[in-house]
Amino acid sequence: MWARVRESANVNGRLKYLYVARVRESANVNGRLKYLYVARVRESANVNGRLQYLYVARVRESANVNGRLKYLYVARVRESANVNGRLKYLYVARVRESANVNGRLQYLYVSRVRESANVNGRLQYLYVARVRESANVNGRLQYLYVARVRESANVNGRLKYLYVARVRESANVNGRLQYLYVSRVRESANVNGRLKYLYVARVRESANVNGRLQYLYVSRVRESANVNGRLKYLYVARVRESANVNGRLKYLYVARVRESANVNGRLKYLYVARVSESANVNGRLQYLYVARVRESANVNGRLKYLYVARVRESANVNGSLQYLYVARVRESAYVNGRLKYLYVARVRESANVNGRLQYLYVARVRESANVNGRLQYLYVARVRESANVNGRLKYLYVARVRESANVNGRLQYLYVARVRESANVNGRLQYLYVARVRESANVNGRLQYLYVARVRESANVNGRLQYLYVARVRESANVNGRLQYLYVARVRESANVNGRLQYLYVARVRESANVNGRLQYLYVARVRESANVNGRLQYLCVARVRESANVNGRLQYLYVARVRESANVNGRLQYLYVARVRESANVNGRLQYLYVARVRESANVDGRLQYLYVARVRESANVNGRLQYLYVARVRESANVNGRLQYLYVARV
Question: Can you tell which superkingdom this protein's organism belongs to (predicted)?
């Protein structure tokens, strides 16, 4: 942020999306700046070239740029951020004496870099934190993240998206690394092959890889992570002495694995946590998650995307399981049919299924989850004695359902928590979420994606509701029209709508949210007596609006918080955010995506403003040119602009 900017934010050229915090005496720009972010810049942010999306925090004496900078982020840069080449999306925090770049940098993030971040090649999206003495790069780096790297991050090959944290003495790479994440690596992360998206945390003495690794995550690996085959997307945490793999592993996640993770077959996307003595697999496993598995996870069939936590003595499967999640399963998870994407937690004595289950989630199910029909993506938590279903259920989520969740119709993606005595549905429900519903959620029409929490006596709907969210609604949420994606929290006595509402969010609305026109995606919080709209509102957010949000034109995506007496608009506003605006936000032109917070007496605009953010602006934000996406906070006496500003962010100017 450029906060507390004084006497110098004048711009002769064109600025777009500028963010400047605490800039003093020197933010003059002769060229073109777009999307500039500079925080605590002093005496030196002069730019002769073109800057776009620049972020500079606490830059002193040296942020002069002869080339072109785009999306630059530099925090606490001192004496050395001079750039001869081209920088895009650069992030540098606490850089001192050495961030000179001869090549091309894009999206660079460097924090606490000292004496050594010189780059001869091309860097893109580089993140380096607390790098000391050794981040020199001869090759090409893109999206590099290096934190607390010391003495050894020299790279001869090509690195892309590299993340290295607390690397010491050994992160030299002869091959090609992309998306590498290494934290607290010591003495041994040398790689002869190709690594992509590698994550290695606290690796010691042994992460040498002869094959090809991609997307590897290894934390606290010791003495044994050598891999002869090909690993992709590997996650290994606290692996000791035994993670050797003769076959091919992809997307492997192993945490606290000891002595036994040897695999003769092919594993993909394997997640194994605290596996002891028995995770040997003769078949093919893909996307396996096994936590605290002991003595019995042997599988004769084919498992894909298996998640088993604390499985004991009985997870043997004769059929085919895919995407299985079973936590604390005992003595009874035998399945004669086919299960896919099964999630069962604390299942006892009764999860037998005669039909076909896919993506099943059942937690603490007892004595009654038998299903004669077909269930897919079922989530049932603490279901007792009554979840029997004669029809077809898909993606069902039912928590603490008692005695009454019987459904004669078809339910899909149902979420019902603590439903009692009355969730019977004659029609069709899809993606239903009902929490603590009592005596009245009966629906004659069609409900889809319904979320109703603590609804009492009145959520009856004659029309059609889709994606409805109603929390603590009392006596009045009756709707004669059509509602889709409705969110109403603590609505009382007045949310009646004669028109059409879609994606409505109304929180603590009282006595006045009546709408004669059409509202879509409306957000109104604590609206009182005056949110009446004669025109058309879409995606409206209004918080604590009082007496004056009347609009004669067209508003879309409007957010107004604590607006008083003056937000009247004669033109067209879209995506407006106005917080604590008083007496002066009148606009003669066109405003789109406006954010104005605590604006007083002076935000009048003769030109065109789009996406404007102005916070605590006083006496001087007058603009003769064109402003788009402007953010100005606490601007005083000097934010006058003769040129064109777009997407300007200035805080405490």
Answer: Eukaryota
